[in-house]
Amino acid sequence: MFGPGRLLAGPDGTVSEPDGNGHFGPYGGRFVPEALIPALDELADAYQSARQDRAFAARLDGLLASYAGRPTPLTEVQRLSAHADGARLLLKREDLAHTGSHKINNVLGQALLAVRMGKPRVIAETGAGQHGVATATACALFGLECVVYMGEEDTRRQALNVARMRLLGAEVIPVATGSATLKDAINEAMRDWVTNVETTHYCIGSVLGPHPFPLMVRDFQRVIGVETRRQVLELAGRLPDAVVACVGGGSNAIGIFHPFLADREVRLLGCEAGGDGLASGRHAATLAGGSAGVLHGMRTYLLQDPDGQTLPTHSISAGLDYPGVGPEHSFLRDCGRAQYVTVDDRAAMDAFRLLARTEGILPAIESAHAIAGAVDLGRELGPDALIVINCSGRGDKDVDTAARWFGLLSDTDVVQAALESVTSPEPAGEGW
Amino acid sequence: MSSPAGQAEGQQAPGGPAGPGATAGTAGTFARARAEGRAVLIGYLPAGFPSRQGCVDAYSAMVEAGVDIVEVGLPYSDPLMDGPTIQAAVDSSLSAGIRTKDVLATVRAVSAYGAPALVMSYWNPIERYGVEAFAADLATAGGAGAITPDLTIEEAGAWLTAARFHELDTVFLVAPSSPPARIDLVCRSCRGFVYAASTMGVTGARSAVGDRAQALVARTREHTDLPVAVGLGVSSGEQAAEVAAFADGVIVGSAFVRRLLDAPDERAGIRSVEDLAAELAAGVRSSRGAAGGGAPGGGAAGGHTGNEVVR
Fold it and tell me: Which of A61, A294, B51, B266 is the most buried (most CB within 10 A)?
């Protein structure tokens, strides 16, 4: 039934290519209403032609350099290394990219494609708000109409990002159905897309969904790994022993892993959200605790009950709070090329504080999961080890969550904040 | 023995011994309606809604009032082709603890009323149950087949093999956006009938079903002799009549669910469902002047299709 998974070495180190229907081994494919098939075919064709078009590549590279701030630095973090038994740790600084995370890499590529396909309207889902902010940014830049679906629960957790998106001219639609989080935002975006597909491009934010999204988003995120590979060779004169990244949907991880896939000596480690711990059942560790199934247009590992109903998930990090994972990660897990571990809320928050205190960098809580996994790996591998960590985003959006977690808000602060929210005036006039 | 996805023609179906509960599918129903010069009325409700017994009573009332085929929805946590009305009903079923085995039990109960019962399910619950096991148990329960709105033909190989073995209908959708090659591919994998989505979008009542539905039915008939039923948006007898003038079947879902959601209690809801079913049944019987004529559909006389078994 399934084509064989392909883990091939190409001339530029490109490996792990899907078949023509988007299968990575048994994973991926397309499970969508028939109404969407022509749009997916159109997108796949537009992407294939763009991929071979030098002008498209030049335009995207130009934007990545002059607008998004690429290449992002590779920062050696010596004081953090001291906490990893002296293993040499390097941070890939996606937190320094425009809008504060790696999400901009994908969004600029997809926005260019939307323009190429003549679609004036772009929709997106968002969890923590990082992808929504990036999409709103690109739409502002290209003059596209932008609608972002966000779980109602997440609009409360990430109110500042809602305001950011609205400032950028996007319409943010809170989604109250189901669990009112990321998975429901994706459902609602899909419903919008099937209704408005002729005018609308769905800018998926991770390596998720029906073919060609997992392939296309991965290719747009590969720039992270391509830069990292070059930078680490310049800095250390050799390839790293390991590359570590957090995995929700898995786009920052696949982006940094992919250019290293052919380097068999480089260990690839994905860190999933362990929430309250795997045993608690309150987590979002799909690859560690899930099983194969179909959700959001793809076959992949899922957190599901015995009847195939999607299970509720938990993570302190909204960006990892998702019951599925990109199909290529499912494939890499099964064939053993990448390993996946679980980092619970507490370990992630400890790593968040550790990086802040040792290096003066506030990572996104998502990225803090990778920091925690890398520090543990450093202790395991010892002082000769060279480890690259993808710092996929910055933590400004998480200050409120972190302050509450660490008890940094005194009772008076909380009272003050509540008073301000009550007394702040209603938005006046036409607003933005 | 497995034929590649998209290659399996309906007429190849009874190649091997049929499963124990094999049914005639929906073909006979379409053939009879055609003989009467009218369209078939298909009514949907999610299993377990408004309650375990309430849904069985509602199906019974629907059949009593003239629904020809019932569509038993398998409640799923992420119904991305459904609008808010059906989402609300499905949420209520899931909260009440309805499981896949309960859906099959519902099919068994409904089959006793004499109308063929089709399961409408997103793909993951079937895959999770086990494709072959689901087909076998559905056939044993007396089910006529399944409608699978998010199973693309490229991914349908295992389901087609299992469903053919158990002589179950396999109903896939075509949409207004579908190009001819795609319609052809979908029709080749359908048995029983083809489900034509009237508009681009999700389930839910609409004020107008639109010309695109009629055009889609015509385009679909260029590729198949199977009956073509139209769903999405139909909520009144008038709309049913309008659709029945050009299609072989009219599918109504959200409007039935809406009646149950809006009723003060379950009994009143079921009465209201019965009223709507009667109105729709009158609708599909009212407007056949021109339509019967050259329209293929209803394969009793055709040499084609998987609906050759008319019992």
Answer: A294
